[in-house]
Write a structure and sequence with these properties.
Keywords: DNA-binding, Restriction system. This is Restriction modification system DNA specificity domain-containing protein. It holds the Pfam family Methylase_S. By secondary structure, the chain is α+β, with helices and mostly antiparallel strands. It is built from eleven helices and 24 strands. It has helices at 60-65, 124-131, 134-142, 156-159, 169-212, 247-250, 328-337, 354-357, 367-410, 417-421, 450-456; strands at residues 11-13, 21-23, 27-30, 35-38, 49-52, 56-59, 81-83, 88-91, 100-102, 107-109, 113-118, 163-166, 227-229, 237-239, 243-246, 251-255, 270-274, 277-282, 287-295, 304-313, 317-322, 344-345, 351-352, 361-364. Strand 8 and strand 9 form a beta hairpin. Helix 5 (169-212) packs antiparallel against helix 9 (367-410). The radius of gyration is 29 Å and the shape is elongated. The chain starts with 10 loop residues before the first strand and ends with a helix.
Amino acid sequence: MIKKLKPYPQYKDSGVPWLGKVPAHWEVFPNRALFVEINDQNNLNEQLLSVTINSGVIQQRELLNVSSKKDSSRIDKSNYKLVMPGDIVYNKMRAWQGAIGLSQYRGIVSPAYVVQKPKYQESGRFFHYLFRTPLFIKEAERWSYGITSDMWSLRPEHFKLIYSPLPPLPEQQAIVRFLDWAERRIRKAIRLRQRRIKLLQEYKQALIHQAVTGQIDVRTGQPYQEYKDSGVEWLGKVPKHWEVVRLKYVARLKSGESITSENIEETGKFPVYGGNGLRGYTNAYTHEGEFVLIGRQGALCGNINYASGKFWASEHAVVAQPKLKFSVRWFGELLRIMNLNQYSMAAAQPGLAVERIQNLKIPFPSIKEQETIDRFINEQIVSFDAAIAATRRAIELLKELRTTLIAEVVTGKLDVREAAAQLPETPESEMEDLAEIEEETPEPQEEEPLLQEEADD
């Protein structure tokens, strides 16, 4: 149905650069003719709302539940603004990034937000789609002012000067109906592909786990013929011919060397590795060869990374230096499935307890078998990562399709009236909530820019 959409039969120049030509029967008005700013304050018992870039207006408790964000609202909320269902709300410091949308809720927002009530209440959903397009966001950026980009503000008096299209109400309803339908279809397609990525990742990890612990013989894809009890609870049985040894006999675990941020550059001769992989470059090195690195501090505790050649290992990484010859990829993936983070010492900044993990027992096949497992792991990683990358690209294409489709429909480049009339009625039980979608790209922090807001006043 989407592929069959065509332009309107007649167009006119809107006189507005960001809109270009619009259907001949559409009107174009400044926002002052379409909205009334609301500053209803002293509603202390209402729930807090936030405006996000990904989802528009949401309940703040939902934002706090699914992220690491903290409640940054003021204790005194007497000057917070009342929002009613159907109002358009935007964060004036982030409108140029897309933090704008239609509210489904009654609640209050910080003074850093602007509340606009559509004069034509039935038009709210149409404007929700329009104002979240890259075209409008770019226009909002043009009207935003500030010393630097992180202080740009779309003030209410400038929002009123932006021109917006206004199709006839029945056509707005057709546009909204069609876009709601298209959104559901695209969201479902995205969700299916996200589930596929999750399954691929789980299957990849399961295969690697089975390979490095000897649950399967990677040469045949079948279990080994004989097993023995490893004496290790998490490991269970291992192939009869494998050894089980303490980690300290296989590798010496030692933290890297201290390095200041001033000595780390974006470009340089030797890479610097920390607890989460590459941090930058420097002109000296501490190690040469191929090594497994273990994250040593904080949230990165137990992370597994690989480094090769000449490099600097920082104090935030533990370097596994071989005592016995082993295959690096096999060893690193074995450490990964051991979940070393569980052996961190609880503190304000958790740190890996090397003295605890070095006494852990691990399976140890012959070096020849390790190398066979290593090749198998590499093959699996390449194969699965290619499938995952292709699926992620498919998701990005769907998101691009959604963005382009919405922009072309709400600005009148495509006529959806006939298509909307042919759509079946959608039962309420089949309506999907935007919050169900797990976005791949984290959105910027939704902090309340109170200092900037006060400066604007």
